[in-house]
Design brief:
The protein is globular. The termini are far apart. It is mostly helical. Helix 4 runs parallel beside helix 13. It has one domain. It is built from 19 helices and no strands. The chain is 77% helix and 0% strand.
Length: 376
């Protein structure tokens, strides 16, 4: 397979996955992220297909730096300061819990892998912000390709289990030791109307997407230029931190923050990353290290959730706020709607989405901080 065809395949599959997620029930059930990973892994293990690992690696390394500014342009930083005290407190407790659990579990398994401290940083990123943060931290720290694949796979599987818990029995269990949310707004069909409208692209969204993409390319180029100018080379860690900082700075301009299509384009870039990383999966190598990585991820996630809920009980934070901020940090803004619907509490939608974006903005910083703290 020629490099051009491979690139077109990697970029085109997410579009097919998004279309299929709206019209094909099995794909809609697992979601486009899982579908993209599965498609990539399937392509990687088809005999005779002739994929080039270098091409897939290059696409994956380009997708994340582009996705970060596209997603962060929509951040409303001043709104963070206007959030309810309990929501902010619960968000901080969730972040602290993720960092502590990553440090504890990482230190306990340090003898099992030479990349344990990098893994701890990646898990801090994903459990305070999201998948993009985990991948950004991994790229900045230079983790091995198979580690990327294993961590993303574990994130999908464990995330699916926790999401099922959140949308079924979590609220009833949390109410056993957490206060009830006072005067929640019942879930109405307003969310469905908003979601339905977002599925119909307009000229404004296309124009906004193009402008946001050009601005994202400019941010990436500026960050790369600063790295070259200061260090004489492209340092992934410096570049990604600069991209995050510049994108957050740009978000203060309302004209940039309100560009339609920016978040959707950033989300598409992440799906491209999912396909590209999936094509790096070597079935034989995954079997060798898979159990350890899954156990590592599961231990960090479970301990982080338990710590978060325990601290929330200590500070008497209500159950719905704890569940929605847990969703925001572990899954990001995209899952706030379904979980808020399951909680039958529309009032937490805005604060949930805002804390999800906040986690995405901070996740890379926190992940790298934990990795630097644990670095041998």
């Amino acid at each position: 397979m020629t490099p051009l065809i491979q690139v077109l395949l990697l970029v085109g599959i997410p579009g097919l996955a998004l279309v299929a997620s709206r019209h094909v029930k099995p794909v809609a059930w697992v979601g486009p992220v899982v579908a993209c990973y599965a498609a990539g892994i399937l392509l990687a293990n088809v005999p005779g297909l002739g994929l080039t690992a270098g091409v897939s690696l290059s696409v994956s390394e380009a997708a994340v730096p582009l996705a970060i500014p596209l997603l962060l342009f929509t951040t409303d930083v001043p709104r963070w300061m206007r959030l309810a005290r309990t929501t902010l407190l619960s968000f901080v407790l969730a972040c602290v819990s993720a960092m502590v659990s990553a440090v504890v579990v990482g230190s306990a398994v340090a003898s099992r892998s030479d990349e344990w401290w990098k893994m701890a940083g990646m898990l801090t990123g994903v459990y305070t912000g999201g998948t993009a943060n985990m991948n950004a931290v991994g790229l900045a720290l230079g983790v091995r390709e198979e580690t990327f694949v294993l961590f993303n796979t574990a994130d999908i599987v464990l995330g699916a289990v926790y999401l099922l818990f959140l949308m079924t029995v979590a609220q009833r269990l949390a109410l056993l030791f957490l206060p009830r949310f006072q005067n929640p707004s019942s879930w109405e069909d307003a969310a469905e109307r908003v979601e339905g409208a977002s599925l119909r692209p307009t000229w404004a969204q296309v124009r906004g997407g193009v402008l946001s993409l050009l601005l994202a390319v400019a941010v990436v180029g500026l960050a790369a230029g600063v790295s070259l100018g200061l260090l004489g080379r492209l340092d992934a860690m410096v570049v990604l931190l600069l991209i995050t900082t510049l994108a957050l700075a740009a978000s203060f301009r309302s004209a940039i923050r309100t560009l339609p299509g920016s978040y959707a384009l950033g989300d598409y870039a992440l799906l491209v990353f999912c396909v590209a990383v999936g094509t790096l999966a070597d079935a034989s190598r995954l079997r060798e290290a898979g159990l350890f990585v899954f156990a590592f991820c599961a231990a960090v996630m479970v301990l982080a959730v338990v710590l978060h809920f325990g601290l929330a009980a200590l500070f008497r934070i209500d159950a719905d706020t704890v569940l929605i901020t847990s969703t925001a940090t572990i899954f990001g803004p995209a899952f706030i709607g379904p979980v808020a619907r399951a909680l039958r509490n529309r009032e937490l939608m805005v604060s949930g989405v805002t804390t999800g974006i906040m986690g995405f903005a901070l996740g890379t910083y926190l992940g790298l901080a934990v990795a630097w703290l644990l670095r041998p």
